[in-house]
Write a structure and sequence with these properties.
- Helix content is 4%, strand content 55%.
- By secondary structure, the protein is mainly beta.
- The chain has one helix at residues 7-24; strands at 39-44, 49-57, 63-69, 74-81, 84-91, 96-104, 110-116, 121-127, 132-138, 143-151, 157-163, 166-172, 177-183, 189-196, 202-210, 213-221, 226-234, 238-246, 252-258, 264-270, 275-281, 286-291, 297-303, 305-312, 315-322, 327-335, 341-347, 352-357, 363-364, 367-369, 377-378, 385-390, 401-408, 423-426, 435-441, 453-460, 465-471, 473-474.
- The chain has two domains: 7-357, Neuraminidase (6 Propeller), CATH 2.120.10; 363-474, Immunoglobulin-like, CATH 2.60.40.
- The strands form ten sheets. Strands 1-28-27-26 form a four-stranded antiparallel beta sheet, with no helix packed on it. It has a four-stranded antiparallel beta sheet with strand order 2-3-4-5, with no helix packed on it. Strands 6-7-8-9 form a four-stranded antiparallel beta sheet, with no helix packed on it.
- The protein is built from one helix and 38 strands.
- It starts with 6 loop residues before the first helix and ends in a 5-residue tail after the last strand.
């Protein structure tokens, strides 16, 4: 059987790697600086939860996470709607849910591949909309660790995984599973990472062992057979943590680790005729890769705590995400429609599942407080309302504003009559474009006599935040 997670042993490994890192980067202790604003949430903290995370975002940007509950030995699934995380136990019979990999189909339903350690089988779960449909994909020996799941254009599952020391691949036809042995390394393999090209052909990066040491390898299906390449050979940990993505030209890109504290992290991209490689970090560790719309790599990685790196053109930018002791392993990163990173990961020290993300940058909008009035005098003792106009422009269609998200100086808008609407479309500045006028109860405003500006915040219907500021003149104090 595959060995179940041993937290004490894992902590010892992390400690050894951390000591190695401290030797390499010895010097005065400095506090890391953040270039991005990260939002960090604890998804679940009951028991020891959050191992083997896998993350996907649906069409509304909601995060979905599969993971292993080590306390109960269960496969679990979490989805956030609004600000609430909803958590389900997918399977709980035996020791199940290791090496999870998650994908969402065209209807937004989650599919999860995982390892059943009790029966040493590869398994697959699909949410039908009302229940979890669970299948055993492969049961021929000790099979199903290091799973990586993708769905093709017809929502059929494709899974790469380790089976009896070999690299294997399973494809669902709609009625049955077709299983192939891709590679039979001399001394076993680990850490497969699967991606599908535009034709649905699978490509896999993986680590394997031999008497010569460790190898980073790459396998691609050409329509009739597997083309296999060895990209790099070195010590026993060469390519142990690899992550594969396919760029917009259909070329494979691989981020991988070379050893632990004495190693490095590298990135290799196929340009159509050769692999172009570079070292982007001087210490090895666990990592996960995503590509943005411009094919720039974004990598979540862990060296004692969760970190994030991305290449902008030719330069690599690196920064901390969640700083502490033993944070950020089993990480998975995806990019939203704005190209912002979202990361699921495991907090070893506290035994928690966590989620970190960068929200979209706010757009600046022009507002007019008390349209037609200047100065914009506000009597904080008034029991009336303050009108605020969001001015439309060639770049802003005010009908695309989510009115329910609007706030002005901490106050919620006042609904108009029985309709429940909070705003009205008017052309307050005579430019021929609609403006959105919203009224806010004066006594709800969080302003004082020293304030000279009032700020409105909200979101567009697609979730993009907006903000606008205008001058105010406070008349008497609210009291």
């Amino acid at each position: 059987m595959a060995k179940a997670f041993d937290k004490a042993m894992f902590n010892q490994v992390i400690l050894v790697m951390s000591l190695a890192v401290s030797v390499i980067i010895a010097g005065p202790s400095v506090s890391p600086a953040w270039a991005l604003t990260w939002n960090i949430e604890t998804v679940e903290s009951v028991g020891n939860v959050g191992l083997y995370t896998s993350l996907a975002l649906d069409s509304s940007g909601n995060p979905h996470i599969s993971y292993f509950d080590e306390t109960n030995n269960d496969l679990k699934y979490a989805v956030r709607t609004g600000s609430t995380w909803n958590i389900q136990t997918v399977e709980s019979v035996g020791n199940v849910g290791l090496y999870t990999s998650l994908a969402l189909d065209s209807s937004g339903n989650p599919h999860i591949s995982y390892f059943d350690d009790t029966h040493t089988d590869l398994k697959y779960a699909v949410w039908t909309g009302s229940t979890w449909n669970i299948q055993t994909v492969d049961s021929a020996g000790n099979v199903g660790s290091w799973t990586s799941l993708e769905l093709d254009g017809s929502d059929n599952a494709r899974i790469s995984y380790e089976g009896n020391g070999d690299l294997k691949y399973a494809a669902w036809t709609g009625s049955t599973w077709n299983i192939q042995t891709v590679d039979t390394p001399q001394s076993g393999m680990e850490k497969s990472s699967l991606a599908l090209d535009s034709s649905g052909n699978p490509q896999i990066s993986y680590h394997c062992h031999s008497n010569a040491g460790g190898h980073l390898k790459y396998a691609a299906w050409n329509g009739s057979t597997w083309d296999i390449q060895t990209l790099e050979t070195g010590g026993g940990w060469m390519g142990h943590h690899s992550s594969l993505a396919i760029d917009s030209s259909g070329n494979p890109c691989i981020a991988y680790s070379v050893g632990g504290g004495a190693g490095a992290m590298k990135y290799a991209a196929w340009n159509g005729s050769a692999w172009l490689g570079e070292t982007w970090h001087g210490v090895g560790g666990e990592l996960y890769l995503a590509l943005d719309a411009s094919d720039n790599p974004h990598i979540a990685y862990s060296i004692n705590y969760l970190r994030y790196a991305y290449r902008d053109g030719s330069s690599w930018n690196k920064e901390p995400v969640d700083v502490g002791t033993n944070l950020g392993v089993y990480q998975c990163v995806v990019l939203d429609v704005w190209g912002n990173p979202h990361i699921s990961y495991y907090d070893i020290t506290n035994g928690n599942l966590k989620y970190a993300y960068v929200g979209p940058a706010a757009i600046e909008v022009e507002i007019d407080i008390k349209p037609g009035s200047l100065p914009n005098s506000i009597n904080l003792g008034s029991k009336g309302v303050v009108p605020v106009a969001i001015l439309g422009s060639e770049d802003l269609d005010v009908s695309e504003i989510d009115q329910e998200t609007l706030e002005f100086a901490g106050a919620q808008p006042k609904p108009k009559g029985k309709s429940g609407n909070v705003g009205s479309l008017e052309d307050v500045n005579g430019d021929g474009l609609d403006d959105l006028v919203v009224h806010f109860p004066t006594q709800d405003l969080e302003l004082d006599e020293d304030d000279e500006e009032g700020t409105l915040t909200g979101e567009l219907l697609d979730g993009t935040p907006l903000t606008g500021t205008d001058s105010v003149r406070i008349v008497p104090d609210k009291d």
